[in-house]
Amino acid sequence: MDKVFIRGLAIETLIGVFDWEREIRQRLLLDLDLGTDIRPAASGDDINCTPSYKEVADRLHEFVGGSEFQLVETLAEEVAHLLMREFRLPWIRVRVAKPGAVISAAEVGVEIERGEWR
Ligand SMILES: Nc1nc2c(c(=O)[nH]1)N=C([C@H](O)[C@@H](O)CO)CN2
Questions:
Q1: I want to staple 40 with a disulfide (CB 3.0 to 4.6 A). Which of 11, 25, 36, 49 is the partner?
Q2: Ligand 1 center to 40 CA (angstroms)
């Protein structure tokens, strides 16, 4: 299977388990790997035959920017299901990093894979 990818998509949102985190917006960095077959798009040179990384990024700004989850786990799971459903993806990898959440670490977060790789 081929992939369309997005790296380091920065989105500000309300996220966290502590009271002070419910009063601010924090920056998340998202990495996405979207499983697909790029051959139909390549052979026809046709954007309609492939998941547009621009459309996916716009959708994520809308969804993640408006979300209010506590855990990065929940956010990653919801993002995976939303993109698989709306962009008809057989497989996805979602990595959500929360830079600055642990001062002594460059990044913390989660990475999940959903669907079937074929
Ligand atoms: N596995 C997780 N651990 C923690 C999370 C999380 O979402 N998943 N969140 C927090 C706090 O919100 C943290 O980001 C504040 O610094 C702590 N641990």
A1: 49
A2: 41
Give tens-digit pLDDT for 59-115. 999 999 999 999 999 999 999 999 999 999 999 999 999 998 999 999 999 999 999
Question: 26: which strand partners?
Answer: 13
Hey, what domains does the chain have and what are their CATH numbers?
A: 2-115 (3.30.1130.10)
ipTM score assigned to the predicted complex: 0.96
CA–centroid distance, residue 69 to ligand 1 (Å): 11
Query: 103 CB under 6 A from ligand 1?
Result: no
Torsion of CA 60, 63, 66, 71, to 10 degrees: -90
Q: Which atom of ligand 1 is nearest to the CA of 102?
A: 16
